[in-house]
Specification:
Length: 257
């Protein structure tokens, strides 16, 4: 179910134990071969897949598309907001949902730069709204064990505009992928302290712009390993985990009532 597609009377009839999902994404550069909307498109593609299986268990809010992408601002086209702005805006959306009686909230994230502030938002809302259950899920961490079996690249190969994201866009929106611009492995200078991967966080947090991480290409990883078949496998792996998460969140809340 989509929040914005329902009438006020129809929203009022929705079971208040339904999990309300706030998708958060980014409008930012994704190398020479993917559009600025990549994170938005991937996030909604994955939710659409889950929606086909458990629509009645979830209510999807309008996606917050422009989020926290300061580290991409060296690249033309990137849009961003301050962390404080995101925290206030996304928080107000969630408080509106809570005011209408919904108590189980899931922030579904498809952009790495949203993870830290997303956790702050969970802590803030969770503390302020004691009767509410709120969680944050980023698609690649949600399905990490299964994704590790799908990937072909080594450490650093799955990061940004990479094997995973390019594969998903080949499945979700194949016409948007500029295949003739796909590069081989792209990775800026790094050390054992700073090498990043979707499935393996570095041991420390050190600020580096995407220009630094990518060596100026805007791509970090191995997009040349992407395939549409791999995109389907990634979609299925995330769908299974997200469906289970939605059902578990609802079940937990019903038990705690």
């Amino acid at each position: 179910m989509r929040w914005a597609d329902l009438t006020t009377a129809e929203i009022d009839q929705v079971d208040r134990d339904t999990v309300v999902i706030l998708p958060i994404a980014a409008v930012e550069q994704h190398g020479p071969h993917l559009p600025l909307s990549t994170d938005c498109r991937i996030g909604m593609h994955l939710l659409e897949s889950v929606e086909q299986r458990c629509s009645n268990d979830m209510l999807i809010l309008p996606q917050v598309q422009v989020c926290c992408s300061d580290h991409h601002m060296d690249f033309v086209g990137t849009l961003t907001v301050r962390h404080e702005t995101f925290l206030a805006y996304a928080g107000d959306i969630l408080r509106s949902v809570i005011a209408h009686g919904f108590r189980t909230l899931l922030i579904f994230n498809s952009h790495g730069g949203n993870q830290a502030i997303g956790r702050v938002l969970v802590d803030q809302i969770g503390h302020q709204e004691q009767g509410c259950r709120i969680a944050l899920a980023t698609w690649w961490t949600l399905a990490a064990p299964a994704l590790a079996q799908i990937r072909e690249s080594e450490l650093g190969g799955a990061n940004h505009a990479c094997e995973f994201e390019t594969s998903l866009m080949m499945e979700a929106d194949p016409a948007s992928v500029r295949r003739h611009c796909i590069e081989e492995r792209s990775l800026g200078p790094t050390t054992r302290w700073t090498v990043e991967d979707m499935l393996a966080a570095p041991p420390i947090s050190l600020y580096r712009s995407m220009k630094d991480k990518s060596g100026g290409t805007g791509t970090v990883g191995e997009p040349a390993l992407a395939t549409r078949q791999k995109g389907r496998a990634i979609t299925e792996a995330v769908t299974i985990q997200l469906q289970q998460l939605v059902q578990d969140l609802r079940r937990i809340h019903e038990v705690e009532k």
